[in-house]
Amino acid sequence: MIEISTERLVLRDFRITDEQAVHEFASDPAVCRYTDWGPNSPDDTRLFIREAVEEVASPKRDSFTLAMSMNPSGVVVGSCSVWVESASHRRAALGFVVAPAHQGRGYASEAGQALLDFAFEVMGVQRVEATCRPGNLASARVLTKLGMRREGLLRSHLLIRGRQEDSVLFASTRS
């Protein structure tokens, strides 16, 4: 079980009981505007939670999909994840999403910094990447605030809701 505490948050493994809180933001079209998933149906959210819970039992766990919960209330305000993209190249990726009612308060930056530290110190990777859609200025600001550098534009990077979409690539390396 993973639990990472920051000043205001606890990043922890998801529980089945988180389903309703996750569905509230994962079913919101505004939240999913820049993601390659959603808006979620109840079945989509149930599957997400089930997969996140099953991930914990993996004997060679290299993916950490975590609830972003407020400390001390435990209210789930978002989701964040870090996963190995290539073990042989010591490369990981991270991502995050914050519920609309909690956006603009620095939670993504706080969680992102904790995930970067975890990736470098615990997972032992050399490089962490993140992408966002070119129009997602809020995520680009968070990634820049984390010290990640914009490395370029990945043209037609993802197929999202039937359309090829570009991504902006950010990365940070262990220094």
TrEMBL record:
Entry GO MF terms: protein N-terminal-serine acetyltransferase activity; protein-N-terminal-alanine acetyltransferase activity
Lineage top rank: taxon: Bacteria
SUPFAM superfamilies: Acyl-CoA N-acyltransferases (Nat)
Gene3D superfamilies membership: 3.40.630.30
One GO cellular component term: cytoplasm
Domain N-acetyltransferase: residue ranges: 9-175
Pfam families, sorted: Acetyltransf_3
InterPro entries associated with the record: Acyl_CoA_acyltransferase, GNAT_dom, Ribosomal_N-acetyltransferase
PANTHER family: RIBOSOMAL-PROTEIN-SERINE ACETYLTRANSFERASE
Protein name: RimJ/RimL family protein N-acetyltransferase
Organism: Actinopolymorpha pittospori
